[in-house]
Specification:
- This protein has 246 residues and is mostly helical.
- Helix content is 80%, strand content 0%.
- It has 13 helices and no strands.
- Helix 1 packs antiparallel against helix 13 and helix 6 runs antiparallel to helix 13.
- The radius of gyration is 23 Å and the shape is elongated.
- The two termini are 14 Å apart.
- GO terms for molecular function: transmembrane transporter activity.
- It is a multi-pass membrane protein.
- This is Major facilitator superfamily (MFS) profile domain-containing protein.
- It is found in: Membrane.
- Its main location: membrane.
Length: 246
């Protein structure tokens, strides 16, 4: 439903962060090879679980399986009777009939009402990947090792993942209250500021080891705040908006 779409889409971030936290915790005591073998269990379980995944009401209606569609929608909405979901069934069927009666071409994608939101979603996905998140996640332990913070490298990485997990919950609660745009603006500006601070630390460390030793708190603080900023907007919201685009 529209009122839950943002909240449910944001739960994707929770699962991603749980995966990162799991990898950091287990990876602290395993080799890359063994960590890969342990993590391989998760997609195998998920793949097997998809055999029991019900089809969506829209898909069932598009295939003429009306009775199954009504049962599926009744279950999704928690309705007491099929009569309660009849209005929504009619709306979905009308949408399917309209789509089937019209033909689409590549030219339609260039129309303003389609091109603008599509461009926004594509740019958000680009910024999500090029905002440095993969470099931070994959090299988190190495960053702390090179920074010489005095805290165990693996412990620091686990702390970062725990902060991500907490604020993934916060983001899920805020997305429908604050709105997509403010969260994205806070997220992008916050990530940029944190990366500037982290880059400044390594610049100072390269040129003045003694001065850098007094700033040992800066790398951990920068990465923690970077993760907070990322998980509030840039992480989950592009996926949410991709779903809303459709």
């Amino acid at each position: 439903e529209d009122r839950l779409r943002g909240l449910l889409s944001n739960t994707l971030a929770l699962f991603i962060v749980l995966g990162i936290l799991f990898s950091y915790c287990v990876g602290a005591g395993l080799s890359w090879k063994n960590l890969s073998l342990v993590n391989a269990v998760v997609p195998i379980i998920f793949g097997a679980g998809m055999f029991f995944q019900p089809e969506s009401p829209r898909y069932l209606l598009s295939k003429g399986r009306d009775k199954e569609a009504r049962v599926a929608l009744k279950r999704l909405r928690g309705a007491d009777s099929l009569d309660q979901i009849d209005p929504e069934i009619r709306i979905i069927q009308a949408s399917i009939d309209e789509a089937n009666s019209q033909s689409a071409s590549f030219q339609d994608l260039l129309a303003g009402p389609v091109l603008k939101p599509t461009g926004i979603c594509l740019m958000l996905m680009f910024l999500q990947q090029f905002g440095g998140i993969n470099a931070v996640n994959f090299y988190c332990v190495a960053i702390f090792r090179d920074a010489g913070t005095g805290i165990d490298d693996n412990v620091s990485a686990i702390m970062v993942a725990l902060v991500q997990l907490v604020f993934a919950f916060v983001s899920t609660l805020l997305v429908e209250r604050v709105g997509r745009r403010p969260l994205l603006m806070i997220s992008e500006f916050g990530m940029g500021a944190c990366l500037v601070a982290l880059g400044a630390y390594f610049y100072i460390k390269e040129n003045d080891e003694e001065k850098a030793s007094s700033l040992g708190w800066l790398p951990l603080t920068s990465l923690l705040l970077y993760m907070v900023a990322y998980i509030l907007g840039s992480g989950p919201l592009p996926w949410t908006l991709m779903g809303e685009l459709l």
